[in-house]
Input
Amino acid sequence: MKLTTVRFGEIDIDESRIFDFVLPLIGFDMLKKFVILEPNKETLFKWLQSVEDPGLAFPIISVSNLNFDYTIDLPDNVVEALKITNVESLLVMNITSIPQDDPKGTTINLLAPLVFNIDTQTAGQVVLSGSGYDISYPMFKNN
Output
């Protein structure tokens, strides 16, 4: 399928890679279809691109690639909504904010991770209430 995007131009994507956000992104309730893009395989960052809005793409990262402890407990309603039966089929990513003029000021939203079920191609943004995680955790805090 051809997908026209503002950031990446026209790209070919496999429709089987489109995730249905059954738990929508906060502030974007009307958008349900997203795909993970990896335009540069040499970086930790990927992009969450809306299939429905060509101008909407978020830089995302798997914090498992970083050197700090991050564990999440998914509430039962999330497990049910995403049809999770096997934790091995989960991918957890976090939205980042990368200042154009200061990439070292990059922050990660640890409070509301994106949870993807690879088996069912369902996904959602989950707010980890009471977790103590920050919405804008400095990526280079220890550097």
Helices lie at 76-81. The first strand starts at residue 2 and ends at 5.
